Amino acid sequence: MHLPEPILPPLLSGRSVKTPARPFEAAVEAARTGEAGGGDVVWGRDAAHFMMALVLEPDTPRRRAIEMLPVAVAALTDALASLAPPETSVTVDWPNTVRVNGGRVGGVRIAVSPEAALDDIPLWMVVGMDIALMRQGSRADPGLEPDVTDLHEEGCGEITRTDLVEAASRHMLARVHEWEAEGFAPAHRTLMSRMPEPGSTLELHHEGRRYEGRFLGLAEHGDLVLGTSSGTIILEAAGACGSPEEALR
After folding, report:
1. pTM (2 decimals)?
2. 129 Cβ contact partners less than 8 Å away, ≥ 6 residues apart
3. Cα–Cα dist 121/242, whole Å
4. Residue 110: which residues within 8 A CB-CB, separation 6 or more?
5. Is the pLDDT of residue 122 over 50?
6. Residue 226 has pLDDT above 70, yes or no
7. What is the C-alpha R_g of the chain?
8. Which CATH class is domain 13-195?
9. Can you give the residue ranges of the BPL/LPL catalytic domain (predicted)?
10. b (16+ CB within 10 A) / e for 118-133
11. Phi then psi for 140, rounded to 5 degrees?
12. What are the extents of the domains in the chain?
């Protein structure tokens, strides 16, 4: 299937990779070797799967820069909501999973240069986005993974890879500028509107452990506040940030 090349916002420049290469891993390697810098976008040519990665060069300490994970989740849901039919439900599972009409379609991940401690400014950061447009082969059998879906199955089959690369790029750039001007508050509002109601029971795995409790809200940096039988705990969104080494496995 031939699709037009995406047109990116003026501040971004892009290049594509063909399957089986994956944009996130390619962008991490390019950022680490200095072949890519801030504003470079790597996108995948697979017409059935939207995959895109954006290289950033933060000017704030890692502790705050990792807010790009929830900011990117907000941007990706913005992009989906702008392209999908009006009745489509776009929601978020903390910290980085995106659902359409209740089914998981993809999400966001980031990698940060390993030299940066929490109070250091990272040399680079890569934000990766991934959405299934149309699952193929064995992955298309809903009986195998009833919780997983794709945009075609959810009535969003008109959305193409090119559409999402363009929309996600625009919304990510807008969210980054908003974050620079206003901080985390705008993304916080968006995520709270797309997550379960406060007081809802959540069950999740985070950093190798299982948690269950009442969702109380989001704290600083997009951390999750959970009320459990043993008291209120805060799960750090930073725990979902992959290392460059993990990204390249």
Report:
1. 0.93
2. 50, 51, 52, 53, 72, 76, 106, 107, 108, 168
3. 17
4. 66, 68, 69, 72, 125, 126, 127, 128, 241, 242
5. yes
6. yes
7. 17
8. alpha beta
9. 8-190
10. eeeebebbbbbbbbbb
11. -85, -5
12. 13-195
**Per-residue confidence at 118, pLDDT binned at 50, 70, 90?**
confident
Letter for the amino acid at 11? L
Query: What angle, 0 to 180 degrees and rounded to 10, lies between the N-to-C axes of helices 185-194 and 161-182?
Result: 130
- Each residue of 158-204: pLDDT tens digit? 999 999 999 999 999 999 999 999 999 999 999 999 999 999 999 99
What span, in angstroms and rounded, lies between the C-alpha atoms of 70 and 83? 20
Q: Which two tokens stand for residue 249?
A: 């496995």
Q: Would you place residue 239 in the very low, low, confident or very high pLDDT band (cuts 50, 70, 90)? A: confident
d(CA 30, CA 17): 12
In tens, the pLDDT along 29-59 reads 999 999 999 999 999 999 999 999 999 999 9
Q: Which amino acid is at 28?
A: V
d(CA 45, CA 235): 35
Token pair in block for residue 163: 């559409």
Give the whole-angstrom CA distance, residue 40 versus residue 80: 22
